[in-house]
Amino acid sequence: MVDNPGPPCYTLRTRMERKNRTVVTVISKVAEHTVAHEAALVVIYGMDLGKKYNLDKKTVIVGRSSKCDIQVDQESVSRNHVKLLNKDEDIALRDLGSTNGTYVNDKLMITETILCDGDLIKIGRTIFKFLSGDNIENAYHEEIYRLTTVDGLTQVYNKRYFMENLERELSRAQRYGRDLSLLIFDIDHFKNVNDTYGHLAGDHVLKQMAELVKNNTRREDFMARYGGEEFAVILPEIDHDRAMVMGEKVRKLVEAEVFVFEKTSMPTTVSIGVATVDDSISEATEMIKLADTNLYEAKRAGRNRVVG
């Protein structure tokens, strides 16, 4: 499931661009200032998943402090992290000199950005989705439905939806005598990434790796985030030999990829377990158990390898 990216209106305003301009400021009472169109932030990753914050005030402060309009109580969030400003026709997002910065659509924001419908805003480890338009409630309910299937950080399918699809594919494979394989893999020494570079860097690695693998699978394959740093790929119509080839392809892709967060390179590898349907497998949980057993063996044997 892919979000509509919306119009390409990501705008960055810096002090340099505003230099030598004549600015006319109209001062009005907060009560008289209304949003030209409805707008809201929805939590799509982090605490309070699915919570909606209407942006119906002139200014909204987001930060760790309990005095903020939207509190994000995390160590990586500054007390007053960002400010949202209602600018009649637009909603602007302004970083307030936060320690760890603010990311909009995975790009570090410098000073101020005009938001567009569908923009993803990362503050600490929480991701908000900006919604705007004439029917904000409809957009909100569509987003909540999407959250039942998609992981907010990596934008691949979540574990619940993965289980539903694996059961369906297994039933189809058994009914028609078709091949079906499963890859389960996780990042080697991922705890070291978080401990050494921080959780924001760890989140970056998870997202980049998910995008890398997803972009190198077939349309009919099904990729999901199975756990914290654990992912799975359902491979319909793929026998064991070809599944092992696919596993090796994923392993090499990740090993060769350059993972960089804030100018710091983080070499990354994965260990992969492979399972293929045979007469011994009658349920999805049995297939997962086999792939998990092979994943454990890959780690025990030294990591950065495929076992099946």
Could you explain how this protein is built, in words?
The protein contains seven helices and 19 strands. By secondary structure, it is of the alpha+beta class. A hairpin with a 6-residue loop joins β2 and β3. The N terminus is likely disordered.
Please specify the SSE layout and strand pairing:
Layout lengths: L10 E3 L1 H4 L19 E8 L6 E3 L4 E5 L6 E2 L10 E6 L2 E6 L6 E3 L2 E2 L3 E3 L5 E4 L2 E8 L2 H12 L11 H18 L3 E8 L2 H8 L1 H16 L7 E4 L4 E7 L3 H17 L3 E2 L2 E2 L4 E7 L7 H17 L5 E2 L1
Parallel strand pairs: 4-5, 18-19
Antiparallel strand pairs: 1-10, 2-3, 2-12, 4-6, 6-7, 7-10, 8-9, 8-11, 11-12, 13-15, 13-18, 14-15, 16-17
Helix pairs in contact: 4-5
Give the quaternary arrangement of the chains: single chain
Q: State the shape.
A: globular
Give average pLDDT, whole number. Answer: 89
Q: How far is it from the N-terminal to the C-terminal residue, by CA?
A: 29 Å
**H/E order of the elements?**
EHEEEEEEEEEEEHHEHHEEHEEEHE
Largest sheet: 6 strands, mixed
Uncertain runs are 1-36
Radius of gyration, taken over Cα atoms and rounded to an integer in Å: 22 Å
Strand order of the largest sheet: 1-10-7-6-4-5
User: What is the beta-strand fraction?
Assistant: 25-35%
**Structural class from helices and strands?**
alpha+beta
State the helix count.
Answer: 7
Helix content: 25-40%
Counting DSSP E segments of at least 2 residues, the number of strands comes to 19
